[in-house]
Amino acid sequence: MPSTRPTLGRLATAGLSALTLLALAACSTGSSGAVGSGGAATAGSSGPITVSATDTECILSAATAAAGTLTFAVSNKGTKVNEFYVYAAGDRIVGEVENITPGLSRELKIEVTEPGTLTTACKPGMVGDGIRAAFTVTGTAAPGKTDEKVATAIAAYTTYVGQQADALVAQTGQFVAAVKAGDVATAKALYPKARLPWERIEPVAASFGDLDPKVDGREDVVAEGMAFTGYHRLEKDLWVDGLQADSGAMADQLLADVTTVAAEAKKVQLTGLAIASGAKALLDEVATGKVTGEEERYSHTDLWDFQGNVEGSAAALDALKPVIQARQPELQTALDTTYQALWSALTAHRGATGDYVAYTALTPDQVKALSVALDAFSEQVARVPAVVATP
Question: What's this model's pTM, rounded to 2 decimal places?
Fold first, then answer.
């Protein structure tokens, strides 16, 4: 954990999903002027692909698009909070937008350079596999213009992802050793710190198919037909049920899965646009799981996760700072100001030893203050992908 407040321009943490992979996909249901079960509309070059998400439908304005930078304009017209995902083979996440509240519109930009078929999914209520359908990308496209500043940002961020991947394995290994030794007190102390590297690079780490729910799935995955494993299974053992006969085996599996994730994360080929999108995705993670207190429902160590996601977003923005400063300096100023306010609001809940108070100790007013600061920063970060995508 940093001993002083990290600043945009000095922090080196991060997160986001690989975007140079294959193609895109989309979920669709019939509607006038939209793609239906029998339609095959193609996106034009004059505007974004619109996504109309409701509680029961996910209607795209096109089922195919030419390779290049693709923009999805997602509108939630339902009553539930929604999400929109684009997957490659094996449910590898190409891009995502989360926490789309009713009435809200969000934009997702991804870069696709090769032809192929991917899958998109709207997830009403943010649960399950979502409403899915295929989306075809045709032709090829050269990667978006990468000037010297963007290339430097990609190199710096790629290095950090590798560093955090190594830290994830090492710190999880220490946590696993304590669990297997039956040392509950030490395991509890190590648990939130072991998770920090995961939270910092979560959009990368969580992009590898079913490894995400195996490592970081909450107990809700049981309703989706999956076993309850990973960090949160051990969290429940430590704080609620006591160590179980299979806790050691669960710990070994967690370390094995984390080691696989770390190796895969180092292979991800990043783009400037992907890094920018990841900065926003990390703040969506805070909004959907951490500031609600539902992520760490047994240990109530959510503020540690909150810190990791915010540090990761700041690191991605740090890498991109020369690009943003050159293209839109007023945005960089707004990012600096809102980030500092969010960091101050968060670390106000950290004691002299550096440990956070339990999330359940926060008053409603304190939670609201965190939410307000998060929203202010997130609003500015949402502007960054468009700046990076436009030379």
Answer: 0.77
